[in-house]
User: Fold this.
Amino acid sequence: AQTVTQSQPEMSVQEAETVTLSCTYDTSESDYYLFWYKQPPSRQMILVIRQEAYKQQNATENRFSVNFQKAAKSFSLKISDSQLGDAAMYFCAYRSGYGGSQGNLIFGKGTKLSVKP
Amino acid sequence: GAGVSQSPSNKVTEKGKDVELRCDPISGHTALYWYRQSLGQGLEFLIYFQGNSAPDKSGLPSDRFSAERTGGSVSTLTIQRTQQEDSAVYLCASRTAGALYTGELFFGEGSRLTVL
Assistant:
């Protein structure tokens, strides 16, 4: 079974600085997708960024980028120029590339990010 | 509405009572998921619906939990004889059929259940 581990329960960053959230996963599959979701206090999960395992290039979405190390099974999220609105829980998630999983996501336990003004 | 709608937003109940949580997915989204988020934990998969196919109930923690989806749209998660360990936020998510491989799920704001 696949597992996702986020080793940092809480992180803090100064506004305008850069922070990196860690995520590792365990799988024997070769085809999969990785995601970072943000959960603000409103509780609504929002997709931040997605990475296909077959792509070597790291995904980037504006101030958000990932460092995908397939051999190490590592998928960290970098937030540049942190803003107060980035404060939230961040969840790393794994999705099998095989249809039998029905598109279900396997989530880590999350990292709570605080942004200091 | 434009997003996934869940009700109630908050529910406090006494141990042993039954509760129903409702999810109204985005119009046109054929797939619907229920997750449970307990304090300090990640999201735990409960059940999955896809169109008219039989649901995947593999994540339901006990036979006190059940869910249905009527007309391929609204879903209701029912917890019978609630226990204190059922206290959690219950999140519903939906996606289009075409997003099976892109993986983007659209989530509601969840229903926070507190069992006294």
In short: The interface with chain B takes residues 4, 6, 9, 33, 35, 42-47, 50, 91, 95, 97, 99, 102-110 of chain A (CB under 8 Å). Chain A has a mean pLDDT of 93.
